[in-house]
Specification:
The complex is a heterodimer of chains A (405) and B (513). With 405 residues, chain A is of the alpha/beta class. Helices cover 41% and strands 12% of the residues of chain A. In chain A, the strands form two sheets. Chain A has a nine-stranded mixed beta sheet, sandwiched between helices. A three-stranded antiparallel beta sheet of chain A has the order 10-12-11. Chain A is elongated, with a radius of gyration of 24 Å. Chain B folds into three domains: 167 residues, Ribosomal Protein S5, domain 2 (2-Layer Sandwich), CATH 3.30.230.10; 243 residues, 3-Layer(aba) Sandwich (Rossmann fold); 75 residues, Helicase, Ruva Protein, domain 3 (Orthogonal Bundle), CATH 1.10.8. In chain B, helix 7 crosses helix 20. The C terminus of chain B is likely disordered. Classes of the chains: A alpha/beta (405), B alpha/beta (513). Chains A and B meet through helix 9, helix 17, helix 18 and strand 11 of A and helix 7, helix 14, strand 18, helix 19 and helix 21 of B.
Chain lengths: 405, 513
Amino acid sequence: MMVAERRAWIFLNQIADLGPMRFHRLLHAAQSAEAILKMSVLELQQAQVSDQVAQAWFEAFRKSGIWKAADAELDYEIQRKFRIVTEIDADYPERLKELSDRPPVLYVKGHWPVPEGVVIGLVGTRRASSYGLRAAEVLTEGLVGQGVVTVSGLAIGIDTQVHRTTLNKEGITVAALGHGFGFLYPKENRRLAEEIVDRKGALVTEFAYQSPAESHHFPRRNRIISGLSRGIVVIEAGNHSGALITARYAAEQGRDVFAVPASIFQGSHSGAHRLIKEGAKLVESAEDILEEYKPLPPLWGKVGMGGVVDPCMNPPPPSRQTSGESPAVRRPPSLSTRGEEAIESLDLSAFEKKVYEKLSAGPFSVDDLAEQLQSPFDQLASTLLSLELKGFIKNLPGQRYVANN
Amino acid sequence: MLAKVESACLMGMDAAKVHVEVSLARGLPCFSMVGLPDAAVREAKDRVVAAIRNTGFEFPSRRVTVNLAPAEIKKEGSAFDLAIALGILLASEALKPPLWPRCVWLGELALDGALRPIRGALPIVHSLASKGWASFVIPEANVPEVSFLDVGALHSFSSLRDVVAWINSGMPVSEQRPPAPWRPADKPGWVDLAEVKGQTVAKRALEVAAAGNHNLLFVGCPGTGKSMLAHALPGIMPPWTLEETLDASRVHSIAGETLHQGLLSSRPFRSPHHSVSSAALVGGGDVPSPGEISLAHRGVLFLDELPEFRRDALEALRQPMEEGVIHIQRSRGRASFPADFQLIAAMNPCPCGNLGHPKKECGCSNQRIQKYSAKVSAPLLDRIDLHVTLPALQVDELLEAGPNTETSDIVRRRVAQAREIQRRRYQDENHRDTSNARLSRAQLKRFCHLEPDARDLLKQAIDKLGLSARAFDRIRKVSRTIADLEKSETIQARHVAEAVHYRALDREPRWGF
């Protein structure tokens, strides 16, 4: 019974023109997906479907071989290529159920469901500046350090930076895709997608296996990003950026919207600034985001703290602390630089400290450093390499270095 | 009725002796030429007939047959004119010299009997002299390029009339002239390093490249001075010697570029435009002729806007970069030309050029950037030891000279010392050139031993910075050069640290592109 109903859901999810809103209207009228398939043209029309479409669907539901595609997907599920999570399945995310246009069917790879706790979506432009990328990295690091699960869209630019940083910090990240699992877009992130799946994260999409990436898919996938999250952080967005669509969805869905400010002279941030004007919370550090969700759940999901719990196999109860700050909660690092005393305690030579202090103030080219520190390049070269190998600084494009906070 | 005159033709960089045999016979007057002549040689007929008449002789109204032996070599060019004309005069007994010594006759004839310069006089004379020929007759205009050669007797004339007069006078051997003294140009007009603002790292990389003969790639936004720095490279390379100029000028002579100015007075610097075809870059043509890379032999080949070059042209660079010589096979012959050049290339970081600029925005998509950089193939990149990113300059840096205003002269002295160290270290090696960049794998093992801490550092750098494995050998070679510049016998950690900085493109992309 359940099997046949699921199959009907999966079938209906693949019908063109049958979007989530219409699906839910039909479901409301017919009570079950199987019953939708048996509706007469009149009944379909009564569910506020135009005459033409009703006729087309009526015929489509009665064609021979209609189950082929749905059965193929069920076969894939049996082969464990991915999982299919319909709204009637137990592990359909609670948070998504709040949406009126929730996807009837989700295709999922990796660890499912998304762990309970604070889930934050971080989105931004594909054409990210180094400032935006750095902001994404710093904020993500701060959030992941507190056990936050990140969600983004696997696009290049900010999205990639968010996923990548989460993985580097051994956190959990979820990517919502704009196409079926028969594809992967963008191609250069194929490796990243595999890593997300391998490292306790998940890929999720509402599109059937054979749906290619189409431009109108991506705004739709944005509502899944915001739907899965408790808050959305817009990091770098121009006036027409998809990140703004995500922010709009987030606002409609009752999620918190955060935005990262930047220079007023850079057009690529004007979208984020508009959000701030409209009431989004201005974010300077991960703390600005986290304070909205206090008290934080204990760091059960945090990897690398010993006693790693696989959230998929055995999701522990989110035993929320009712008051007070958890002793395990560390102060998240912020965009501001480390203090003097922090530098003093580091195991660095005097010159290394000097270079590191300099680089804490922002990116410098090697040329500038050589001039300002009055040091020949060969000496500087060894110092920079040694600092980089120790993880204190990092190399930016254009022969520039910056302190790693 | 039969006469033989010696001449020569070019075969790639070599010269082959050609016997010009002329036979006169009774019959209807006609003039035929056999022995694989090309168009220019066939046209010699008309030039020779006119030149002989205009010099005051009668052209024999006989059946004239000219054979260019050996018959299987393809002859090209106009250098046989003089020999053919003399052969006809001898065969018709218009000339009756008392003796006919072994001598190679070269020259193109004008219709009025004047002798015109020929292409490739330098390599022909050089090559035949090394095979034991001691006496040459050449056009006056070819003297500047040949006069520095140490050959037995070099006679130069400006017309057929003068040649005939000299023959009739019994061909007195003129005083053996010593090779003319040669000096490189005083001020070749290269950019001086002191004129380049800022860019300390790039300047240092240029010095390292010059010291070890390493190939170098500059990556930087427009206006960072990539091209200016490239034009400073010849000025900091070791002094230009006669031996080198003879070697390089031979190629230029074949391309007809030394006809007027004589030997190259300074290091060749070739900067072909990026629309250059692969044949023009590496050499080619129906009968193979040298391309830009051979014209840059012993000098600098500058490829600006590297990714804009045609893919096939860039790929064709790989073999000569490895061997220092280019082998060209064509339907009408094959040839090898020397191509031992130092490559310096420049490219923007992305199509719009603003990637990594602290102020300007880069408007390129990831795909476009990848497509752009993928135009330079990994195997080509593999042959470039140093890649350096140039930071964009701030306005105040442009206005005032930075603290490091070393002139090219100072740098060149250091470079020359480092080269000398290398020359001494590798003098027992049986290798075409003795520089760090040219070390083979086996030699690398023997000569580029790293101190333990240097080895540790390199290992860490490769692990942690995501340097590719191929960077390993490159860094060792470059560290060797950096140590040589410091006159250090051993390769220390600091040398490796600096060398790691010159592998900008090997780093794992980590900023989302």
